Structure formats: C-alpha cells, structure tokens
Amino acid sequence: MNGWLVAATVLLAAGFGPVVWGVATGPLERRVVAQNFGTSVVCLVMLLLSQAYVRPSYVDLALVLAVLGPAGTLVYARLLADDLGDDPPHANLLTVVAASAATVIVVAMCVATGPGRATVKLVLIGVLLVAGNVIASRALAGGFPGAGASTRD
Amino acid sequence: MTDALTLVSLLLVAASATAAVAVRDPARQALVLAVLGLALAVLFTVVQAPDVGLSQLAVGSALTPLLILLSVRKVRRRGQHEGGDR
Question: Interface pTM (ipTM) of the complex?
Fold first, then answer.
C-alpha cells in the first residue's frame, strides 16, 4: 500500500473523469476549459506516479506535459478564436484550483525527495505548470486582444 | 492498488475513445482527441511504458489538434470562397 499511488488514483478518477465528461458534452467554451484543466491534472498525476513507482526519471513526462499542455491550449485559443469570440470562457475558479493543487503536490514531493538536483527540477515543473495554466486561461478568456483576430483576414 | 489504477485509466481511455467517435464536429473532435491522448499517456505510464507515453504526449497534446484545426480552417475557407463565386 503506497500513499502516493492512492493519491494518484484518486486524483485521476476525481479530476480526469469530469474532464472527459466536460470535453465530450456541452458548449465549445466548456470543452476548451475542460481540456486545459485535463492537461494540468494529468501532469500532477505523472508527478505522483513517479514518486509512487520510485522512478525519478518518470518526472520527465510531467516536464514535457507542463511545457506542451499550455502550448496546445494556445493553439486552440488562436485557431478557435472566431467561435470563442462571442462568449469567451472564464475559468478563474478552475485556474485557482489547479494552481493550488500543483503547489501542494510539488511542495509535498520536494519534502519527500530532499534537497538536490531533483528538487530543482520539481520546482521548475511547478513554476511552469502554474505559469502555463495562468497564461493559457487568460488567453482563452481573450486576455490578449488582437492576438486572435488581427491576422485572420 | 495497482490494479485499481490500471482499471481507472482503462475506463478513462474507453470513455474518451467512445466520446471521440460519438462527437461529430471536427473542431470539437480535436479537443476530445487531445484528452484521449492524455488518457492513453497515463495508461502507458501505468503499465510501465513511459517512453511510449512520452511520444504519445508529444504527438497527442499539441501536434494532432494543430493539424486537425488547420485542415478544418482551410476546408472552411475554401468552401466560403467557392460559395462566394457562385
């Protein structure tokens, strides 16, 4: 019985299940927000799994996802700008939830690993995750005016 | 506990794959496909194949949606253009 494994299972079931439901149904705005939240959840699950299996190299998966997840969301924000323009999605609550969950999990893993290069990597992933989440949700909410519409015609 | 984790990730893959088939609009399908890629990456990691999961993440989270959305945009534009000519 491994506490990290239990945490990963619970996070996967409670966090990613609603994401699948949210991305499969409802209006386009909700689907984009759900996909963005899903990348954060899976990144945290990867972090917990690397701790659960005692394989520090699995952290690379979380690092790749922390970089590529917001990039994918920016692709949607750019290419779906016409469809999202009428009623841009605001997901401040979800962003706060994802950022605080990332902070809690990264701090817990840093305490578990102890000081060293692995801790620096974990902190880097945490910073990338929180910053990427904030930037992506701001871009979805139309926070960068002109980025979507100016080059379309 | 490992079995429970495998079961949960298998169920999530099945659910998101069914949703990817059921959704009809290509732009929305790209979103569901991205989530399916995430679920597959978790499944690969759970069955101890993180290298496959890594490539799945790299392709599935940014590249596939980009290709689909660019194709949709091009097809739509061409349709509007021909509609304007007639």
Answer: 0.87
- The pLDDT value given to residue B62: 80
Token digits for B54? Answer: 């890594």
pLDDT grade, residue B84 (50/70/90)? low
Q: By residue range, what is the domain housing residue A117?
A: 3-140
pLDDT tens digits, one per residue of A19-42: 999 999 888 888 989 999 999 999
- pTM value is 0.88
Residue B39 forms contact with A (CB below 8 Å): yes
Structural domain of B51: 2-85
Mean pLDDT of A145-153: 49
Residue with tokens 């739509």: B76
Residue A134 contacts B where some CB pair is shorter than 8 Å: no
Residues near A14 by beta carbon (within 8 Å), at least 6 away in sequence: none
Question: What is the SS3 assignment for B29?
Answer: helix
- CB contact B31 to A (< 8 Å): yes
State the nearest Cα–Cα gap between B3 and chain A, in angstroms.
10
Percent of chain B with pLDDT over 70: 95
> How far is the CA of B69 from the CAs of A58, A79, A108, A144, B29, in angstroms?
31, 7, 38, 21, 10
Q: Is residue A147 part of a domain?
A: no
Check if A51 contacts B (Cβ < 8 Å). no
Q: How many folded domains does chain A comprise?
A: 1
With an 8 Å Cβ cutoff, are B57 and A13 in contact?
A: no
Flag if B57 and A32 touch (Cβ within 8 Å).
no
